[in-house]
Write a structure and sequence with these properties.
Blueprint (H helix, E strand, L loop, with lengths): L3 E10 L2 E11 L4 E5 L6 H8 L7 E6 L2 E2 L4 H6 L1 E4 L11 H11 L4 H14 L15 H13 L5 E5 L7 H16 L3 E6 L2 H7 L2 E6 L2 E7 H9 L4 H4 L1
Parallel strand pairs: 3-8, 3-9, 6-7, 7-8
Antiparallel strand pairs: 1-2, 1-4, 4-5, 9-10
Helix pairs in contact: 3-4, 3-5, 5-6
The structure holds adenosine-5'-triphosphate (ATP).
The site of adenosine-5'-triphosphate has 12 residues, from strand 2 and helix 1.
């Protein structure tokens, strides 16, 4: 059974067909990159997968659970880093994580230990008591990433996790994504950065104008790219 099954997903906003009949499977333990230019439909697809945007048609299953039939159960299986980070600007880095861990029903003692561990790993110890609003873009993204992996969900969904982030923080986030998947967990991320997809992902889906143009292994994408098949999408 695939970790995530997306079937015939569609979503329109007025006249705009943001997502147009998209289907793909994500195997357990893979890092699946949803790759495409601005406005391609990546965010809309991810939001339907993690259950905050209802599709016009189609379905999403995570570990066999239908996201729109059993939303609570499905959401408990997913850690999410949304496009706008989703962190609270007036709470400190630590408070953001503690608050979120409580919402996820984590045991207090375990939660505090996990938060300290993550702040340390991500080099955010000194920013522990800094309100999120005062953090750099890279630091905010790292807090958002820590939030997504706090209770170690089997599926991680990241919307442009390194967009606008400084080089060092981007590298740290990428390394953590790889480590996360290495433990057998599944990651879906969106990016419009070809280099990132090639370096980081095991599988890719190329999306443009709401349609899935290609789904396959990362190595095969490199061949297609050499053949200039998708040049118009990335130029
Ligand atoms: P980006 O990299 O710029 O975030 P994307 O690939 O994530 O792009 P989406 O954000 O999914 O693309 O947008 C796909 C299309 O749907 C775009 O034309 C966008 O303007 C439109 N769209 C997305 N969300 C809404 C909304 N809430 N209301 C109206 N139109 C929307």
């Amino acid at each position: 059974m695939p970790a995530v099954e997306v079937k015939n997903l569609s979503k329109s906003f007025g006249e705009v067909k943001a997502v147009n009949n998209i289907s793909f499977d994500v195997e357990e333990g893979s890092i699946f990159g949803l790759l495409g230019p601005n406005g391609a439909g990546k965010t809309t697809t991810l939001r339907m997968i993690y259950g905050v945007l209802r599709p016009d048609s189609g379905s999403v299953r995570v570990l066999g659970i239908d996201v729109w039939e059993e939303p609570r159960k499905a959401k408990s299986l997913m850690g999410v880093m949304p496009e706008d980070t989703g962190i609270y600007p007036r709470l400190t880095a630590e408070e953001n994580l503690i608050y979120f861990g409580k919402v996820r029903g984590m045991d207090e003692h375990k939660l505090r230990r996990r938060v300290s561990e993550l702040l340390k790993i991500l080099g955010l110890e000194e920013k522990r008591f800094t309100i999120a609003d005062k953090l750099s873009k890279g630091q905010k993204q790292k807090v958002a990433f820590a939030r997504a992996i706090l209770d170690e969900p089997p599926i991680l969904i990241l919307d442009e996790p390194t967009l606008g982030v400084d080089v060092m923080s981007a590298r740290e986030i990428r390394n953590m994504i790889v480590d996360y998947a290495r433990a057998g967990r599944t990651v879906i991320l969106s990016t419009h950065n070809m280099w990132e997809a090639e370096k980081l992902c095991t599988h890719v889906g190329i999306i443009s104008e709401g349609k899935m143009r290609y789904v396959g292994k990362r190595e095969d994408l490199e061949k297609l790219y050499e053949e200039k098949e998708f040049e118009e999408i990335f130029l």
